Amino acid sequence: MFAEIITIGDEILIGQIVDTNSAWMAKQLNLIGIKVKQITSVSDDEAHIMEALQLAEERAEIILITGGLGPTKDDITKLTMAKHFGMGFRRDEETLKNVTNIFARLNRPMIDVNIRQADVPDGCVVIQNKNGTAPCMWFDHHGKIFVSMPGVPHEMMYLMDEEILPRLKASFELPSIVHKTILTAGLGESFLAQQIAAIEESLPAHIKLAYLPRLGQVRLRLSASGANEEVLKAEVQTYAQQIIAELKSYVMVEDDVPLEKAILDLMTARKLTLSTAESCTGGYIAHLITQHPGCSAVYAGGAVSYSYELKESMLGVKPDTLNTFGAVSEQTVLEMAAGAVKHFNTDYAVAVSGIAGPDGGTAEKPVGTVWIAVASKIDVQAKVFKFGNKRIQNIERSASAALTMILSRLKQDHN
Amino acid sequence: MFAEIITIGDEILIGQIVDTNSAWMAKQLNLIGIKVKQITSVSDDEAHIMEALQLAEERAEIILITGGLGPTKDDITKLTMAKHFGMGFRRDEETLKNVTNIFARLNRPMIDVNIRQADVPDGCVVIQNKNGTAPCMWFDHHGKIFVSMPGVPHEMMYLMDEEILPRLKASFELPSIVHKTILTAGLGESFLAQQIAAIEESLPAHIKLAYLPRLGQVRLRLSASGANEEVLKAEVQTYAQQIIAELKSYVMVEDDVPLEKAILDLMTARKLTLSTAESCTGGYIAHLITQHPGCSAVYAGGAVSYSYELKESMLGVKPDTLNTFGAVSEQTVLEMAAGAVKHFNTDYAVAVSGIAGPDGGTAEKPVGTVWIAVASKIDVQAKVFKFGNKRIQNIERSASAALTMILSRLKQDHN
């Protein structure tokens, strides 16, 4: 069973935005046993869109289309799909209600182009888009499925999760697919592969192991494909346990959740609290944590102490420490973490101070030097990392290393 | 002049990685006047790659291909290109030298597959890849240019910048392309379109206007294509000024930079300082600001005050205020912002307190209710927003609204 993804819109072709939708969609499709044959980005041009639809239909059974559904005249996806299928238009009353409600909620007057968002090709099934005014349209054309969705990521994701994926599962006989993900940290991809080589070689043909490295972590994903879901689950579980036993403390989470979610789950269960003291990560760790609903049971808050002054006033770092050792030093980061535990009255705290770059490095402390400390009410420990010279990556890798340190520490203290 | 980009490799089609290469390449091509007609991602499959090459050649003059050049047996781009062009292979001595040097530097033994990286289709021009072992191959086939590059981003970028783009400029007579982006906030896409309809209709055929909406902001992009760059710049500037005059205070930035960068630029120029006091945005505003190099000249830091206690201890919010009005209230957010200016000793501060959801809403304050305040040393003003019920989007929209409020305020005070 093959799908193709077509993204419509000039913004991708002029390089204004990176197409993150396609990777997300491809991942979800693979998870339910639908392979993606091709991803195609085309411009808002009728002839070109029609050619792309035609070619995709020749290669795949499912064609998912995003973009080009806005109210302005450069958005021509809807018109082009109707032309491609030889359909006329009808006004969809449910869509009109949805659009009217959205405008009422925003307290904005509706104009003619907004009303026309409710006009859809008369042969499609409309799937209501609760998060926006552009309707999602499902076409069943000679047994091939075409779905046109808005390109706004959260609208597309919600529609995929709630509507499209369940309908695809119901429309086709798909194999059962069972995945199991193990999150590791502290060992590179090739070393991991070496350590579990015997297990990998013993895998039967219907079970695959993928290495997904990112930011100093490697996710190991076992994927089994077959007829009986329960059998597959048991098989995957057996191999997963072998891998976990082999990799021991390199295993951070025996599940497909991000590090900060694993931390929140463990701390919630044990009624522990956490705070943060961030310099070079600039609030990114706090942001990762507070993305998750229910984090307030664990997370009290923290300091983004960019300046020397705020490291002193918010965290109680001694001026002497800063002047003698500098902001990026073991001494400073230890005081930051201990200060956070004390001032924010939490069980644990993590502190990060480093040189994210691109400027500010010295021979002794080059760009990419990052100190991270984890403190409890009893003690505090620090570690230094040497990352590269890219600012954004340094921020992300620092956050990832900090979360790894917290989780390792929590496992030591509370397992 | 059209180009197409073909990315080869399963990792994109299974959603393992996001294809950031294509957007980068498309941007560089557009800047030198080469439009990208289509971006296509295909798997490591001979028939599929050959079909993609064939179709791309029918639509475009330049075909840039990335990926599938590794030493392992799933990498078949080189073999497939030779087959497509009906070429044999020759050993390229320069490439062999490069590969040998790289292995010597890494102190690793070379094996047969590494030596075979120096075998190239005999009709191509080899461009040396200084950053890796896979050679870059340039084919001139009946006046159409095909370039096969490695998919590793930094290898591809270096080759594009140093070799491919200069050679393309030398190979074709390219038009000049001029873009101008205006960032607006506070008015939806369709209302913007209505307000500038007369200007849009007056645009000549060679100037296009695009609407790029995101998180309550809309970017307006004028793109002009023609022979004389100076003439185009003047034309685009004229239309941009008409749009700016028409939209007045809805225009946030007359340039293609994110809001927080515009804030940093304005505040750096005027030697002003900023701090943040975040509750529901949980450090996300701080993160947006601190992504940018040089932010420390403006940004002192801030509080992520998730708990009542930290709102009191870090920002000086009165317990009475919290108990009487609650954390999500005008009174609390005013005290948070004023407290940040005072405690963090900055010229300005922004504070956000809201209910990001999915839980925690009440009839009076439903999920999505967000109060935002901006304070200077002189006064403080707050505004309430009603967003939706999605946590991540509420965080993003709150940050976007907060940044819009800061920038509007700065423009009032310092224009």
Any idea of the CATH topology of the largest domain in chain A? Molybdenum Cofactor Biosythetic Enzyme, Chain A
% residues in beta strands of chain A: 25-35%
Number of strands of chain A: 17
Mean model confidence by pLDDT of chain A: 94
Largest sheet: number of strands, sense, barrel closure of chain A: 6 strands, mixed
Q: Record the strand order, biggest sheet of chain A.
A: 2-1-3-8-7-6
- What is the radius of gyration of chain A computed over CA atoms, rounded to a whole number of angstroms? 26 Å
Give the N-to-C terminal Cα separation of chain A: 44 Å
So, CATH architecture of the largest domain in chain A?
3-Layer(aba) Sandwich
**Proportion of helical residues of chain A:** 40-55%
CATH top level label of the largest domain in chain A:
Alpha Beta
Give the largest interface. A-B, 88 and 87 residues
Number of domains of chain A: 3
Structural class estimated from helices and strands of chain A: alpha/beta
Global geometry of chain A = globular
What oligomeric assembly is this protein in? Answer: homodimer
Output the CATH homologous superfamily of the largest domain in chain A: MoaB/Mog-like domain
Number of alpha- plus pi-helical segments of chain A: 16
